[in-house]
Amino acid sequence: MNTQKNSSALFTDFYSLTMAQGYWKKNMNHRAVFEMFFRRSPFGGGYAIFAGLGTLLENLQSFSFSREDIEYLDSLGCFEKAFTESLGGFRFKGSLRAMDEGTAVFPQEPLIRVEGGLIECQIIEGMLLNTINFQSLIATKTARVWLASGKGSIMEFGLRRAQGPDGAMSATRASYIGGASGTSNTLGGKVFGIPVLGTMAHSWIMAYPSEEEAFRAYADIYPERTIFLIDTYDTLKSGIRSAVTVGRELAARGHSFGVRLDSGDINYLSVEVRKILDQAGFPGATITVSNDLDEAIIQTLTDAGTPVNTWGVGTRMITGGDEAAFSGVYKMAARDGGGGTMIPVMKFSDNPEKTTTPGVKQVWRVKDPAGMAVADVMGLDGDDDIPEKGKRYAFWHPQADYRHFYHEISGNAEPLLKPRLEDGVPVSPLPPLAAIRAHAAGDLDSLDPSYKRLLNPHGYKVSVTGKLRELKLALIKDYIGDL
Questions:
Q1: 389: how many CB neighbours lie within 10 A of its CB?
Q2: Of 26, 257, 262, 458, which is most buried with the most CB atoms under 10 A?
Q3: If you write DSSP's letter for every residue of 8-56 in order, what string do you get?
């Protein structure tokens, strides 16, 4: 179920509509192939987590122009009436191939491949990029947080700081894919089937005459879910003492408890709180911490052995923190050449990193016999350009054609772009979100730790086959020869 419906096909950039009218007027709605890829890994990291596919596929099923949408376009004075009337029957009828949601992905390789008429491919661009870019950003951030915690328990607390209601729902979904254990977003819990989590606010304690009375009242109401927020007045002189007093009463009734810290020196306070809890006979009492945490802070605390059971992470995870956006783009890779053929096309640029790789492509993930990822290789789909086990290949850098490495494939070479829509119809049901989350965790396990370092990660190899390299060089030569 998806409540992030972007059903209106007006949810696109205006140029998509002006180009669509141009294609319509010039009778150019021929087949084309577009690819969505990203240019650099966010947060200075060595990987990203592909997220948002399920939302995108659901939205594509209802993406259309209502009568009110068409009337709005007519009011702009930019479009011919016959064109806007033709939009009344618009539905995405093309095909879409994509990597599994939750896959660890890398720059320059296509995550999604769209094939259809020029008009429909162009109109869905904005919605596709909006959906995939934001969710991939948040899933990646959460994965970094989760790994920094030593794969600990992460509570997503970001509802109040997210970029509006749509951002909150998208981020809740994406953070669960990236490794969060649950969310404070109750609607997100209902819609996505994510565990909902929460303790208490300082206002609960301030509403009572004393801290101890506030804790006792909460424990009476929620004896099975009691976590005391102990930093409202003084963590060590008051909060933890009151928690122990009421905790003994809970223990006498057969219940356990935990405490939460939301301010101060997390390392020092958690160590002292752990001592007090252990001395009081509560070695099983849990400690949850929050307070503007991110992966760098969490890794520092984890490396220091800070006794934390659960991390509550909000603002710096749910908003992307120090990274404003995911660098995903959507570019044409091939167009109809007549007779069922597709002509490869590419974008040239004064910035080499913005030059695209032409052709209808597949991506293979090459693994060693132990199942660890070695490299991702782009090759021409539907051709004999397929990496085969037992053969030795030269694989080339996508941008620097002189850089390459040799590799004999001793493990599997798995094709990553799989059919999702054919003629606009889903090929198979969407997997449960828990399965996507498990896939993300497994994919991260298949990466060498050097690719997952927070600082200065090793660069994962994304390469092209010799045949694809030759195609790209030939197009470059043809283009330069015409200048």
A1: 12
A2: 257
A3: BTTSS-HHHHHHHHHHHHTT---EEEEEEEESS-GGG-S-EE---HHHH
Q: List per-residue pLDDT tens for the chain, 483 residues long.
A: 444 556 899 999 999 999 999 999 999 999 999 999 999 999 999 999 999 999 999 999 999 999 999 999 999 999 999 999 999 999 999 999 999 999 999 999 999 999 999 999 999 999 999 999 999 999 999 999 999 999 999 999 999 999 999 999 999 999 999 999 999 999 999 999 999 998 899 999 999 999 999 999 999 999 999 999 999 999 999 999 999 999 999 999 999 999 999 999 999 999 999 999 999 999 999 999 999 999 999 999 999 999 999 999 999 999 999 999 999 999 999 999 988 889 999 998 777 778 899 999 999 999 999 999 999 999 999 767 778 888 888 888 887 777 888 888 888 899 999 999 999 999 999 999 999 999 999 999 999 999 999 999 999 999 999 899 999 999 988 877 665
Q: Where does 25-181 show beta strands of DSSP type E?
A: 31-38, 48-49, 95-98, 104-105, 112-117, 153-156
Q: Which amino acid is at 110?
A: P
The Cα 52–Cα 469 span in angstroms is 30
Sorted by where each begins, the domain ranges of the chain are 14-138+323-482, 199-281
* Distance separating alpha carbons of residues 50 and 112, to the nearest angstrom: 10
Q: Taking the complete model, does pTM exceed 0.85, yes or no? A: yes
Q: Which residues contact 403 (CB under 8 A, 6 or more apart)?
A: 396, 397
Give the three-state DSSP class for 116: strand
Q: Which token pair is 386?
A: 């397929």
The superfamily CATH assigns to domain 14-138+323-482 is nicotinate phosphoribosyltransferase (3.20.140.10)
Domain 199-281, CATH homologous superfamily name and number: Aldolase class I (3.20.20.70)
Report the alpha-carbon distance of residue 455 to residue 459 in Å, rounded.
12
Give CA–CA dist 11/7, Å, rounded: 8
